[in-house]
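> example.struct
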């Protein structure tokens, strides 16, 4: 846990670059939907979309230092559920709203996307997130039962292509 400096919130990008534009499109639409709800309920938009959108599958934080952002997120999520609010958009907004100092971790800390499904049974990262990603939605339990865990994943970043990742992880 020492990889994240004290006081910072450790996050991983939701857009890990594997489906050109797909994640950015989804993120922007989700953000704008919540901004529409802000206008409907409170007469003004929340925050502009800046592309800083974090995956909530795994993150590192200090409860005492980041309680305000979580409290705001929880309250906002409940108020905006009827508008289709999701945890990732709300938490990303909270971190921006409260100007929480971030430490952006590489995707070994929360690897999502096609490489996760295509590399099975090898796991490409310390944290392998079998999210319901695009057309990949079934078989998570079977994949986890056959998983080959590793303690030394290669350096992964959000712009590695699927082929490059397959070579890095030996798939």
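> example.seq
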């Amino acid at each position: 846990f020492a990889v994240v400096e004290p006081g910072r919130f450790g996050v991983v990008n939701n857009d890990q670059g594997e489906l050109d534009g797909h994640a950015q499109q989804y993120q922007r639409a989700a953000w704008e939907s919540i901004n529409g709800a802000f206008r409907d309920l409170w007469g003004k938009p929340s925050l502009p979309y800046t592309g800083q959108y974090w995956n909530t599958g795994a993150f590192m934080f200090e409860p005492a230092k980041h309680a305000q952002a979580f409290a705001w997120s929880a309250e906002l999520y409940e108020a905006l559920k009827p508008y289709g609010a999701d945890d990732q958009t709300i938490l990303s907004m909270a971190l921006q709203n409260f100007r929480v100092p971030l430490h952006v971790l590489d995707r070994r800390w929360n690897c999502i996307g096609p490489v996760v499904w295509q590399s099975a049974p090898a796991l490409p990262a310390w944290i392998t997130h079998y999210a319901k990603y695009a057309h990949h939605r079934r078989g998570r339990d079977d994949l986890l039962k056959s998983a080959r865990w590793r303690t030394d994943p290669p350096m992964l970043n959000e712009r590695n292509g699927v082929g490059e990742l397959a070579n890095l992880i030996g798939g």
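> remarks
The first strand starts at residue 9 and ends at 11.
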